Amino acid sequence: MGRKWNNIKEKKASKDANTSKVYAKFGVEIYVAAKKGEPDPESNRALKVVLERAKTYNVPKAIIDRALEKAKGSADENYEELRYEGFGPSGSMIIVDALTNNVNRTAPAVRSVFSKNGGNMGVSGSVAYMFDATAIIGLEGKSVDEVIEVLLEADVDVRDVLEEDEAVIVYAEPDQFHAVQEALKNAGVDEFTVAELTMLPQTYVTLPEDTQAQFEKLIDSLEDLEDVQQVYHNVEFEE
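== Probable transcriptional regulatory protein OIN60_10570 ==
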């Protein structure tokens, strides 16, 4: 079970090393979420999720405020939410979520990265059925038993609560994201090490040694694309 958090942690570490790109992507994501409803996280649940995620990546307040102000103003950039599915080296599976204001730019760019790095694009639904949408919330300072007790008292259903790498990780259905956070906040938790809505694979694969570097380059190249917000895969990296 620990492999779930390990892959999320690996992803966070990679993003932490590319802060300017991460901040720019969050700026777009915050703007799009704010434009879907009111630019107020208390009445806009989608926006609240993005802002909670942004906290765990230490996105500066100035960037958040700029995106919210843009959403409140007359700016009306139209972004589409797109999902691409494909296969990497040795049959690995990959999901790419994008926000774009130019579909004609995004699709060819994603396809090109796949083809140049030993992968290929699949049709819609060819990969996603092997993944489960999941809320992952991590915290420190409480034990597994304490977290379970808090969630039971708040009548919040979750899939699992585990101790992984000195943190407690809660796995839940996406629609329980806010309920889990609110229950923990009411119990005195004021900071989360991770707060993600992600796609977790139902099974993991370990790549042959001779394709690992190629796969990592494929994932890095996809995440570097301007329009790509999230990349999910089913590869378990060696620790």
